[in-house]
């Protein structure tokens, strides 16, 4: 099988598995990895207030939990060939992707919100965001869910595709594991401020290019001019260097206003306003889901066209 065919088949196969089966309900590899990360953190993070030692402990923990899986991925790329390699790559990329799961979580919020069941919508949005869902009104619930769709579309969909296309199994596995560690260890609190710093910085580095490709994707499949203007003018005001472009472009692509004050257990966090347009509502969540889905279709079209062009040019 020619080398240009493999990435196309793998990406289409993984997305097809995700569409048909969704996330594995039992024995998801990331659940087991998360349990391992919890045990390693409890063992190594004994002095969270000691900045130097905690940073070193976190770096060592990162190597301990990610190193063996990264090494196995490298060996698989070397030892496996042909259809065996394709099957393993498709399965791993399926585990890393979460396009159908993203849509299911979003619709679980949008549907009760659309029929006026605010309590149920709050309960469902509490599963996907860290803010205090009980303090959210209808617009707050819609904003929280829409923002989650846009940001997780970047992390759980486009970044996984990017790292597979760039670096195969080692790339997609390392990205997904580091992204999971950032979600577990990346909190800016007394326990994880130093211990999780290496995981957070590596996650920022690995997501820098995918985040901007995602922002460009949202712009191309949405309200292009508005999205590009919001990205240019608003992204730098966001506290995350990668979420800023994604969220600003996504809000502009949807032609709505996101960001603003958000309630957390520690109090209300004043966030910059993103986008331009009316306040979000239940339909905004559905629109954000469709924006991510159209973006995936665009990536597949570009990938297929590039592969065909490469083939017709004789691989030169």
Automatic annotation (TrEMBL):
<feature type="transmembrane region" description="Helical">
    <location>
        <begin position="83"/>
        <end position="103"/>
    </location>
</feature>
<keyword id="KW-1003">Cell membrane</keyword>
<protein>
    <recommendedName>
        <fullName>Cobalamin biosynthesis protein CobD</fullName>
    </recommendedName>
</protein>
<keyword id="KW-1133">Transmembrane helix</keyword>
<feature type="transmembrane region" description="Helical">
    <location>
        <begin position="156"/>
        <end position="178"/>
    </location>
</feature>
<dbReference type="GO" id="GO:0015420">
    <property type="term" value="F:ABC-type vitamin B12 transporter activity"/>
</dbReference>
<keyword id="KW-0169">Cobalamin biosynthesis</keyword>
<feature type="transmembrane region" description="Helical">
    <location>
        <begin position="296"/>
        <end position="313"/>
    </location>
</feature>
<keyword id="KW-0472">Membrane</keyword>
<dbReference type="InterPro" id="IPR004485">
    <property type="entry name" value="Cobalamin_biosynth_CobD/CbiB"/>
</dbReference>
<comment type="similarity">
    <text>Belongs to the CobD/CbiB family.</text>
</comment>
<comment type="pathway">
    <text>Cofactor biosynthesis; adenosylcobalamin biosynthesis.</text>
</comment>
<dbReference type="GO" id="GO:0005886">
    <property type="term" value="C:plasma membrane"/>
</dbReference>
<dbReference type="GO" id="GO:0048472">
    <property type="term" value="F:threonine-phosphate decarboxylase activity"/>
</dbReference>
<dbReference type="Pfam" id="PF03186">
    <property type="entry name" value="CobD_Cbib"/>
</dbReference>
<comment type="function">
    <text>Converts cobyric acid to cobinamide by the addition of aminopropanol on the F carboxylic group.</text>
</comment>
<keyword id="KW-0812">Transmembrane</keyword>
<feature type="transmembrane region" description="Helical">
    <location>
        <begin position="55"/>
        <end position="76"/>
    </location>
</feature>
<dbReference type="GO" id="GO:0009236">
    <property type="term" value="P:cobalamin biosynthetic process"/>
</dbReference>
